[in-house]
Amino acid sequence: MAASTRGTVLKKRRLSLAALRESTTAQGLALIAPTALYLLVFMIVPMILVGILSLMTRGPYGNVVYRLNFDNYTRLIDPLYLRILMYSIGVGAATTLITLVIGYPLAYYIARVPARQRNVLLFLILVPFWTNFIIRIYAWIMILRTEGLLNSFLLNLGLIKVPLDILYTPTAVLIGMVYEFLPFMILPLYTSLEKIENAQLEAAADLGARPLASFLRITFPLSLPGITAGSILTFIPAMGMFVVPDLMGGAKTILIGNLVRNQFLTARDWPFGAASSMLLMFLTLAMTLYYTRKVGFSEDLLV
Known about the structure:
Number of domains: 1
CATH class: Mainly Alpha
Number of strands: 2
Number of helices: 13
């Protein structure tokens, strides 16, 4: 009799747990439904349409002929487009490396100052986003041009005799890239560094670790998720950027983003432009998956 009662109680518990699990699942689905719908309509469906467009044929007048054509992808093997792709990867990697070198010490400093100063510094980092991106790029053009602020300052100090020719060069493009993406590197780094407790560093010091050893064994490994996130947020959009090369490079520097834009707006070869954009998407997706598998976004992956 007791065994029968115990079995009935266990059965009721299982039913209640199952009902609770179903209720939680239904609530979770209801919560993510708006986001899932948004991603479906504005991301997944457009990507599918671009993928279909990349397999179509360009008509004689720039129209799209709905006939399968895989030459759009084989054209990307051409040495000209391969050079553009490799140059885009190089610019993205250089931008990521420079923003990391500049942003890491700044993020570390912000994470270690008192809370009141920390909020002010974070506010100052976000202030540039209050101004339109194009206006900020034109401000850099005014600074870097031959008669600009930088050359005037250096000439007045007597440090140079002839104005520096920076604008409309790859150097100007890199300056614009670093300026634009530096906050995207600093903020993820700050998030990771701010989580590191002083007690960990004090324990390392008590055990005889010098500051450099403490940084290499504790601070740097715990900040790897921030480095990963910041690198991805910088590298991927830097590869596809076309505004900075056009305005600060004088259209002399062509990245894959410029190639895609030119195919859609100038050459009117939409299928090839779609194929180029799909290549960029697959490349960045592969790099992101590889990078996150090697490093990860979570501190749990560092154990």
